[in-house]
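agent> fetching stored inputs for the iron/sulfur cluster docking request
agent> found them:
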Amino acid sequence: MPDKPKVAFYWCASCGGCEEAVVDLAEDILKVVEAVDIVLWPVAMDFKRSDIEARPDKSIVACFINGAVRTTEQEEWVRLLRRKSQVVISFGACANSGGIPALANQSTKEGILKYVYEDCPGLDNPNKTRPQLKCEDEGRTLTLPELHGMVRSLDQVIDVEYYLPGCPPTPKLIMAAVLALLTGKLPPVGTVLSPDIALCEECKRKDSKPADLALTEFKRPHQVQIDPEKCLLAQGLVCMGPATRGGCEALCPGGNMPCTGCFGPTSRVKDQGAKFVSSVFSNIAPKEVKEIDAVLDGIPDPIGTFYRYGLSKCLLRRKLN
Ligand code: SF4
Ligand code: SF4
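agent> prediction call returned; pasting tokens
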């Protein structure tokens, strides 16, 4: 019997939700396991780095990597997996554009360490002790990975062939990607494996979205009784649908919650947050600066709202010292 194709899964800076999404394939996971040999999957199987190092280069047919690259260890792993894999799939929002971990790019590395080990309320660390990268213990040398100065998306560290968007990608898109890989019916390198349309296009509320939203205030979901039929933006809720790629079938608006933008932008958009600001803020009804400011006060965390999943790919990218 011929060898089955080898597949690997790896995670960097992420919450583990993308790993859950693979398990969410439910009985379809059995079809995947039947068709391939999984040679690395830290969340579920006990393989070591030495197992991967021992494999011939390009012997892994496809490697799915989720999570952003924050530490030296993550960078070493993704470079190793790049060398060993024919195809690398950037899996999920954190790998694609930094995700939630990239919100840390609003702080410097020193700022993060100082806050976590010195200034954080409730911290009990009188000597301001920080983790050491290297220490000796009874003749053994213990090491820790180092934080990089900023959080990077996977493709800012290694070349990748395909992108699966989402926080996490939906089981339907994952299965479609796996089938494309197994049958060799692959799109051009660089493709995002999700429809290249704005999320509003697949939202059931789209017909209730007026051409001019005439916004007089922004509200947060807990401040309003949400109408389940009407466009959320038209109700004054920040719904990232106009600046977000489709493919999830508008899951969040379908569940009466605004889209927070986890599928990233379409191919025609360079900067998802800037796209949202340019397309929606021109719909603010007041024209006086003071009144406009009052409307914008309804968005208390603009970066966390417009770049929740994409600060690594934002044109400004990070805070400098
Ligand atoms: S803005 Fe949000 S709720 Fe309105 S149509 Fe677009 S995705 Fe749907
Ligand atoms: S509606 Fe928006 S936030 Fe929700 S899953 Fe889809 S892209 Fe992600």
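agent> quick read of the result: The chain has a mean pLDDT of 94.
agent> awaiting further instructions
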